[in-house]
Design brief:
Blueprint: E1 14-19, E2 24-29, E3 39-43, E4 49-51, E5 69-75, E6 78-83, E7 86-90, E8 102-104, E9 109-115, E10 118-123, E11 126-131, E12 136-142, E13 145-147, E14 157-161, E15 167-169
Length: 176
């Protein structure tokens, strides 16, 4: 009882919002790399914002071309930053990390699901499954799949093949 509700306004068109912690979220913005890498972090306690990426890091020059920021996932002590054309890791200071590992999608991805150690990139006519530990493409599923939920790592990934029915993607341990 007596809780106060505060409003938060992000003054740019936003593609997605993801909680990074209980008090911080990241918003993927329409403006692309020119606006702090397309991602803005918001402190929910103070309402202060800052860019997720350190644009003074020369190793991020490759990402200055026109790309669409889609989402970001906290992974261990880093962030996996996902764009429509590629994904890469940055540390908590917004600098490139993990040996400059870049995962370049074969198509243009519009949605992602993290199911560690895999990330699923949903492209127009296929789904790409990448191992985030090795940075390698593991599998490509042809077809028009649509992500129906935004699961946290380890939760069920629900998809719809061309909106005909709901299907669960099942991940099996490769050692079995």
């Amino acid at each position: 009882m007596g809780e106060t509700v505060e409003e938060l306004y992000i003054p740019r068109e936003t593609y997605s919002v993801r909680f990074l912690s209980r008090t911080r979220l990241a918003a993927a913005l329409k403006k692309g790399f020119a606006v702090q890498g397309g991602f803005e972090m918001v402190d929910l306690v103070t309402s202060e914002t800052q860019g997720l990426l350190d644009l003074s890091d020369p190793s991020l020059q490759f990402a200055s071309k026109k790309v669409k920021a889609v989402t970001v996932f906290p992974v261990s002590n880093t962030f996996l930053v996902c764009y429509d054309k590629f994904a890469f890791y940055v540390d908590r200071m917004g600098r490139m990390s993990l040996n400059d590992r870049i995962m370049r999608w074969t198509g243009s991805a519009s949605a992602f699901a993290l199911h560690e150690p895999y990330i699923l990139a949903f492209c127009t006519n296929h789904v790409e499954i990448w191992n985030i530990e090795t940075g390698k493409l593991e599998q490509k599923l042809s077809g028009f799949y649509h992500l129906l939920n935004a699961p946290e790592s380890g939760e069920k990934v629900l998809v719809s093949p061309a909106f005909r029915h709901v299907a669960e993607m099942i991940f099996r341990d490769s050692a079995v």
